[in-house]
Amino acid sequence: MNVTTWYLEMLDSRELIHPQAACLNISIEQAKIPCPEFSRFLYTSVGGDWHWTDRLAWTFDQWLEYLDRTEVQTWVAYSQGTPAGYVELELQDDDNVEVAYFGLLRQFIGRGIGGHLLSFGVQKAWEAGAKRVWVHTCSLDGPTALANYQARGFKLFKQTTYQKEIPGTPVGPWNGAFPPST
């Protein structure tokens, strides 16, 4: 299968476009304690529907080593006490901040939470001293991912296409989980 990857960036905090205010009834909190179990839950719960597989083979120690760094911030959106999605930031050299992972659990998609959570995460990147915030997404991600990044003010700076063999259906959050609704 051909997979297209889009690389987007924001070079000034004034480029951030916040979505229209909505009554979302969510809270967003930083997961300050490195917790591989929780981070893997977020990764598989959000990415299982979209062919996120890069971290599935990580061991507990690999997760902990990645998370137990001051350069990584995980911000989690909650709806009535239930995790709804997350944005993971990685502070990099030259004052770059990457939106490393971002997304919602399937039952929270389409409620306006994604735009709000992404804007919140990008704002946190700027507050961390970013001179550039960047992200990449691909044609294996959710169908509105690219549009959401662009709606927040990200601009395309690079695009690549490559061949990748992928299973016909995503693995889901765990074996036997129901397929994503389209």
Structure report:
Helices cover about 25% and strands about 30% of the residues. The chain has about 180 residues and is α+β, with helices and mostly antiparallel strands.
Compact overview of the structure:
The chain has 182 residues and is of the alpha+beta class. The protein has helices spanning 36-47, 60-67, 113-127, 145-151; strands at residues 2-10, 26-30, 72-79, 82-91, 96-104, 132-138, 155-163. The protein is 23% helix and 31% strand.
Oligomer classification: single chain
Question: Helix content range of the residues, please?
Answer: 10-25%
- The Rg value, from CA coordinates, equals 16 Å
User: Averaged pLDDT, please?
Assistant: 91
Alpha-carbon distance between the termini?
A: 20 Å
Q: What structural category arises from helix and sheet content?
A: alpha+beta
Give the H and E element order.
EEHHEEEHEHE
Biggest pleated-sheet summary: 7 strands, mixed
**Beta fraction:** 25-35%
- The number of helical elements comes to 4
By DSSP, the count of extended strands is 7
The parts where pLDDT drops under 50 for at least 5 residues are: none
Task: Report strand order across the widest sheet.
Answer: 2-3-4-5-6-1-7
The coarse overall form would be globular
Keywords:
single chain, 31% strand, alpha+beta, 4 helices, seven-stranded mixed beta sheet, 182 residues
Sequence-ordered SSE layout with sheet pairings:
Blueprint: E1 2-10, E2 26-30, H1 36-47, H2 60-67, E3 72-79, E4 82-91, E5 96-104, H3 113-127, E6 132-138, H4 145-151, E7 155-163
Parallel strand pairs: 5-6
Antiparallel strand pairs: 1-6, 1-7, 2-3, 3-4, 4-5
Helix pairs in contact: 1-2
